[in-house]
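task queued by scheduler; priority normal; single chain, no ligands, no partner chains; default sampling; output format set to structure tokens
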Amino acid sequence: MRATLAALLVPLLGGCPDREIAGVSVDQGTVTSKDIPAVPRHDVDILFLIDDSLSMKEEQASLKANFGRFIDVLEAIPGGLPSVHIGVATPNMGTSAIDGTKAPSIGTCVGTGENGKLRRLPGGGASFLSDLSVNGSRQRNYTGTLAEAFSQIAEVGTNGCGIEQHLEAVKHALDGSNPENAGFLRKDAYLAVIFVQDEDDCSLAKSTLFDGNPNDATYGDAVNFRCAREGMECDTPDTDLTVIGPRRDCHPKYDSTVIAPIDRYSDFLKSLKGDERDVFVAGIVGDPGPVETIKKGSVTVLKQSCEYTSATGEKQFAYPGIRMFDFLAQFPTHNTSASICREDLTGGLTQIARALAAEVGAQCFTEQLADMDPDQDGVQYSCTVTDTRRVPNQPDEELAV
């Protein structure tokens, strides 16, 4: 059950105190609404999917160093830090595919990889961090600070499979197929999934992606490009990615038989909650463009879409996140993204934390509300409160006004 409150937009401040409100153009005929749960929740399960491939050393270090900024934002929510579960998984699904096949092990791509298992605290500790508010006190399953504990489970290394199955790994982490992950996902908590990656999703429908001769010097580049060619396409100027040159109007390849469709994963996440608005997704990922194919020796490859120089003076880069941006867009008002091509990920982490805080902590209007009778002293609002029963896959039932 949710209480739905509607009010006219306006030139005067309405909603929560202690928030900075920017000036807006007022449309006196506009009505805005805000859904508020009948029983407010302050619980959120946060899954970080952290790329553990060879190119992620610098980005992982920045994530761990700046995670405290992420927590600082959540602690500033009215009522303090929500009751949180925080888990970490990697995109390493080895050479496995959703059709049940596995290619022979190739380098660090072995079998089913980590298969979505949550990373444990050292010494056989908990498989996720739990920090709960119970009767005015905190109950934790870790020692030290939350940032220190996160740094331990986020130590995923850089020896993971270079074919990153980000979306399939999230599904395995949350679909109940891993007994070790039991208890992480709570029925009545918000769910936030946050991706940190420098290559696009390559969730496999078939393991034939790995076909070829692993002893060939060009094998790695060829397999990576096959992932791009099977996972995305661009409408301008040519859909054939093997043709060298820049591309525009790029999107997932909807008829791919090798790479899994995006809606397999967006539909799955939405199905976990009675209301899909209880799911929040975010990514610190490679810029979606520019997209260009180039020659690397005798092999066609996808060019990086962004780059930066790390604190150690090394060139770091990322590839176009075409599939990931399409996935995020499946949650139109409950997503945010930031570029991973930054020496310091503080900005991206803070941006994501603020967006998540707005989902979990804000139970009031952020727009300015209209004074319906400016000739009267004080502000005269026009509000309607509707009590609504919301049942999945059924029309909303209005109970009272």
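post-processing summary
- Residues 3-28 have pLDDT under 50 and may be disordered.
- The two ends are 14 Å apart (CA to CA).
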